[in-house]
Amino acid sequence: MNATILLVEDSPDDVFFLQRAFKRAEAKTAIQVVQDGRQALDYLSGVGRYGNRDEFPIPHLVLLDLKLPYVLGLDVLKWIRSQPKLQSLPVIVLTSSSERLDLDQAYRLGANSFLVKPSDAERLVELIKCFVEYWLKYNLLPQVG
Amino acid sequence: MITSTKSVSRAELLSEMESLRARLEEAEETLRAIRSGEVDALVVEGPEGEQVFTLKGAEHGYRVLVETMTEGAVTFSAEGIIFYCNARFAAMLNMPLEKIIGLPIQHFVLPSQVSAFATLMSKEDRNRRGEFVLMTSDSAPLPVLVSMSVLPEANVATICAVITDLSEQKHAATLENMVVERTAQLREKIGELEAFSYSISHDMRQPLRTMQGYAHILLEDYGEKFDHEPKIFLQRIETAAQRLDRLIQDVLTYSRTAREGDQLSTMNLDEIVRDVVEGYPSLRNAKIEIDPSMTLVRGYEVALTQSISNLLANAVKFVPPGRIPEIRIRAEQRDNFIRLWIIDNGIGIAAQDQQRIFEIFSRVHSNEVYEGTGIGLSIVKKSVEKMGGRVGVESELGKGSRFWIELQKAA
User: Fold this and answer.
1) Is B238 helix (H, G, I), strand (E, B) or coil?
2) Measured between beta carbons, which residues in chain A are less than 8 angstroms from residue B220?
């Protein structure tokens, strides 16, 4: 399956590392990138150019950073869970923080998984390989939208 | 007058005095007996002959009650002239009872509250109360609760009041307020610390990951384009970034451990010391001698590793230029504690600096001479204290330092 992943990540460096890691993991995925929380909300609700669902399809998964400009990651998550059409959309938090506060709050708000960005590129590739294997190979995804 | 006085003989005067003394004694005894409830009736000789005042039945119980109760009791006229008070009220004012009777009650009320007190006195309700401050004989303020009621069947309008000493209650309330305030302050401090470590975990690790990430990608994806030396430099960037990231994570873990107050666990001191010695590259150029007889202590792994590595890093750092650092690490038992000594051949610390070096950001040397942040030893102190231990140093300028940490011995 050629899955679409919406990557919500404000650091262009991390976007670069993640795209490289997905390539290394040889995943058949289309990665859509938005750089802040507001863009994530626009993308998911199809505002403006995101209304073109051929170019910007509803994703199968969301990879969500927590510290984002404009709208924080946890607020994006809260918003997703409040949308009837997006309630079942799997959201995987991918952040540099392993703070218990974030962790507990993310799960409370309905995150499906919580991953901490590894500090080195090698382990990031490993993590993304596992991610692809689990979420796109073994795990069954819901119908969203 | 003068002649008549002179006409009274000395013997007559003495006898009159004797009789007065006897009457006074009798009166005092009667008063004592009334107070202690021993008397049921009083016979008083008046102009119309003998009058009997009975003090029997329920009244007897009331008198005992009034004289033994822990509240002050006082009766006074509508103008405030005190007819009677119990011993407790006299004790509150720190004055002999006889001196109180006959004085206006207003005399004992804080001047600024006299009019409020008068208002309470003039009210018609049977039960009325108010908080006042009384002035004791030594002018000390005494916070009290005053409950007044009118004695209905008395010939002269009589008010009786029960006075409750509130000083302990007030004191307790002040203490309670202080505790509440302190707790709020501490909670705020903890909140600040949490925000601080939150920000470190998010903001400081990000650029580090970036440095490490690009160095790694250069090596892995473009490696064949580099000569040997640039490759080594890239590797060093990567290693340094990884080490700093580990350090940040350790500090975060430590701050979390400190916050959560986890259970101490049993640590093998020998293992931890050897791990630190082997793991830190800066220690490789030093001669380090480890006492093999070390034992088990109670601690947190991260905090303990951090403390020992900070002390060892200092031991190799603060040496005169050109001298090879020599460190001896040994442990000794002191009652239920293990004292770990880290003894160096460095520059030593002057007596006046030995206490303040453990305070955060305190430094003895400028950055040009010995580089540092001034946090290292404060982390050692905090970590060790968190583990229920102590830290200290013995040193003399130019003669090396003997730092020690004391940890609880594991059972």
Assistant:
1) helix
2) 121
pLDDT tens readout for residues B3-42: 445 567 888 888 888 888 888 888 788 777 766 666 666 6
Q: Which residue has the tokens 């040997």?
A: B228
pLDDT, greater one: B50 or A106 = A106
**Chains A–B, number of C-beta pairs less than 8 Å apart:** 55
- The distance of A115 to chain B (nearest Cα, Å) reads 14
Contacts of B242 in chain A (CB under 8 A): 119-120
Which residues on adjacent β-strands are paired with residue A117? Answer: none
pTM: 0.48
Note whether A89 and A144 are within 8 A (CB).
Answer: yes
Please list the alpha-helical segments (H only) found in B135-227: 167-199, 205-222
Contact A120 B208 (CB under 8 A): no
> From the CB of residue B119, how many other CB atoms can be counted at a distance below 10 Å?
11
Per-residue confidence (pLDDT) for residue B109, from 0 to 100: 92
Strands B128-135 and B82-85: unpaired
Q: How far is B198 from chain A (nearest CA, A)?
A: 7
Name the pLDDT band for B330 (thresholds 50, 70, 90).
very high
